[in-house]
Design a protein that fits this description.
This protein has 9 helices and 21 strands. The protein is an alpha+beta fold and 308 residues long.
Length: 308
């Protein structure tokens, strides 16, 4: 299932939540601290209903402390006992908590990097380390891992040992949700540890991985971006593409249009072909062209455009 786009701001919030021990947030925190994005956060689908809180904060003239919540035996409503004012009602919203769906969130990151959907994310250490799979970066196959709470006591040692037991996959990236990364730490296998937030495109409103940044982290040369004069080759977001003459005509037409184009117009004016569907031009040998679904995007109404 392809996830719908989420904004960079929502992604950064989820990434911070990923660093918390239980990856849990209360309704109060969401509404009071992140009120401007609460709708987008909940609509993203990455939060699931967690257990209700069983205490609330009680404020007195001289102190503040947590007190237990109970149900009124007559009305069934939530309440707590205030030492100065007796029983007070509790809004059920105050008790709500949400948990981050870690597996789904990690899968989003894997898809954003370009790991094929056919590769399933593998859990290596419970709630700590995941193997996202292998991805092609500048024509090289690179293993990608994700770790959370790397700076929590004992976690680095566990991750170090787990990666040391993996054979045959070296020179990859270990992405982490941590924002406090000791630059002197390293892991076996020649893998490089990078903060996930630094792998995001800075100028995009949405969550998008900067593949040129990944190349840079790996020490690979970053090729010049753009299209060749005949549109037969392209380097977009660090990825190299080659096109046939008819494919290049479609790419050039979409590039010049700058907006979604209907397939009928695209096939008639750009490709000079009898094909009925655009995908037929970008499919061969039983698989789609690497640009399909990444550089070339479409909706369910027959419109196509380029996404850089």
């Amino acid at each position: 299932m392809r996830e719908k786009k989420i904004t960079r701001e929502v992604f950064e919030f989820l990434l911070r939540l990923c660093e918390q021990s239980e990856s849990r947030v209360s309704w109060n925190t969401l509404s009071e601290t992140h009120g401007d994005i609460i709708g987008d956060v909940l609509a993203s689908g990455f939060l699931k209903q967690g257990p209700n809180r069983n205490t609330v904060l009680c404020l007195t003239a001289d102190d503040e402390f947590d007190v237990p919540v109970e149900r009124d035996g007559t009305t069934g409503r939530f309440q707590y006992f205030h030492p100065e004012a007796g029983f007070r009602p509790v809004n059920p919203d105050q008790l709500r908590q949400y948990d981050l769906g870690l597996e789904r969130f990690i899968t989003l990151i894997a898809a954003g990097i370009g790991v094929p959907a056919s590769q399933r994310v593998e859990l290596l250490l419970e709630d700590l380390l995941w193997d996202l799979g292998d991805v092609q970066i500048t024509r090289r196959t690179i293993p990608i891992f994700f770790v959370r709470r790397l700076d929590a006591p004992g976690n680095y040692e566990r991750v170090h040992d787990a990666l040391g037991e993996i054979g045959g996959r070296t020179g990859g990236l270990v992405m982490t949700s941590s924002r406090r990364l000791n630059r002197h730490i390293d892991v076996p296998g020649g893998h490089r540890i990078v903060q996930a937030i630094t792998c995001m495109k800075r100028d995009s409103r949405y969550f998008e991985v900067d593949r040129a940044a990944l190349s840079n982290f790996l020490g690979f040369p970053v090729p010049r971006e753009g299209f060749s004069s005949d549109f037969r080759t392209a380097i977009i977001n660090g990825e190299s593409y080659r096109f046939t003459k008819k494919q290049a005509a479609v790419i050039e037409y979409l590039h010049q249009a700058g907006t979604p184009v209907h397939k009928n117009l695209l096939l008639a004016q750009a490709a000079d072909t009898d094909q009925k569907n655009v995908i037929d031009l970008f499919r061969g040998g039983g698989k789609n062209h690497p640009a399909w679904g990444t550089l070339i995007r479409h909706d369910n109404r027959g419109h196509y455009w380029l996404e850089y």
